[in-house]
Write a structure and sequence with these properties.
Elements (H helix, E strand, L loop, with lengths): L21 H10 L3 H50 L3 H23 L4
Helix pairs in contact: 2-3
Length: about 110
């Protein structure tokens, strides 16, 4: 199959099926009285899991920002320390390389595909 014949990728389908229509729900209720409660519990657990994933994502973003600010403060402190001890020319490559690495890491994280 060539690339032109490949169907476009769709968003992954949800693991939990949506709730059935009213007439289908009545049929399921006749077959298995606990089925709708089971399905509701399944949907609620999936929603809890999605909320937990969102909070974990927020936590990692906050951690990323804290690390970036921490490194920025460390570079500023290192620069002042080097100037105070008359060693600024020896520290320039270290600060420049560190800032370049930090900027590269931040851009790599922000531009990654999810």
């Amino acid at each position: 199959m060539s690339d032109q014949e490949t169907p476009p990728a769709e968003a992954p389908a949800s693991m939990v099926p949506s709730f059935p229509a009213a007439d289908e729900a009545r049929k399921w209720q006749e077959i298995d009285p606990d089925h709708l409660a089971w399905r509701r519990d399944l949907v609620e657990s999936q929603l809890r899991r999605e909320r937990l994933d969102q909070w974990a994502g927020y936590g990692f973003r906050l951690l990323e920002q804290a690390i970036v600010v921490g490194f920025g403060v460390a570079f500023v402190w290192l620069g002042f320390y080097a100037v105070d001890h008359k060693a600024s020319m020896q520290v320039v490559p270290m600060i420049g390389g560190g800032i370049a690495a930090l900027a590269g890491a931040v851009l790599a994280v922000r531009n990654r595909k999810e």
